[in-house]
């Protein structure tokens, strides 16, 4: 079984604990990324959207999964299942150390995930204690002035990647 772990990193100026609005396991948060077919190599033209509160039955099986998708090119069907409990917010310490944070693990059958897109609402805290809700990161950055800490706060250099974990 091959799992893909979504890792994010960013430069955080006077900010910490960057995560999806309700946490990494927020059931309503939508993770957007493209899928590459493991059979023919075709990449889906648009991002696919997955969230924990959307489940579908696995074809010809008993369990449920978060996505069943058919490759438009070769008709091969694949599934993506989200594995909860592994994510953690991106802290300022990790960011300064040049480390990435693990957000979510995906069990992908028949597809390989790529090109995660930072859509949806995000939450981040300033080091002075201000919480910013529903932050839009789709433009790739965020900048504000923190009244409490009397300093600028900024998210920049956002990056995401999927690392392969075999289990
Ligand atoms: Zn295909």
Automatic annotation (TrEMBL):
InterPro entries: CXXC_Zn-binding_euk. Keywords: Metal-binding, Zinc. The keyword Zinc applies. It holds the Pfam family CXXC_Zn-b_euk. GO terms for molecular function: zinc ion binding. Belongs to the UPF0587 family. This is CXXC motif containing zinc binding protein. It comes from Nepenthes gracilis.
């Amino acid at each position: 079984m091959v799992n893909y772990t979504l890792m994010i990193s960013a430069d955080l100026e006077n900010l910490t604990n960057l995560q999806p609005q309700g946490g990494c396991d927020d059931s309503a948060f939508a993770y957007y990324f493209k899928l590459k077919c493991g059979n023919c190599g075709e990449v889906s033209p648009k991002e696919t959207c997955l969230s924990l509160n959307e489940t579908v039955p696995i074809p010809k099986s008993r369990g449920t999964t978060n996505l069943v998708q058919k490759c438009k090119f070769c008709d091969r069907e694949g599934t993506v299942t989200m594995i909860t409990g592994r994510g953690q917010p991106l802290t300022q310490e990790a960011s300064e150390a040049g480390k990435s944070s693990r957000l979510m693990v995906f069990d992908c059958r028949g597809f390989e995930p790529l090109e995660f897109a930072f859509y949806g609402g995000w939450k981040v805290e300033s080091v002075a204690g201000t919480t910013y809700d529903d932050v839009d990161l789709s433009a790739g950055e965020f900048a504000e002035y923190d009244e409490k800490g009397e300093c600028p706060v900024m998210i920049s250099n956002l990056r995401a990647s999927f690392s392969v974990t075999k289990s």
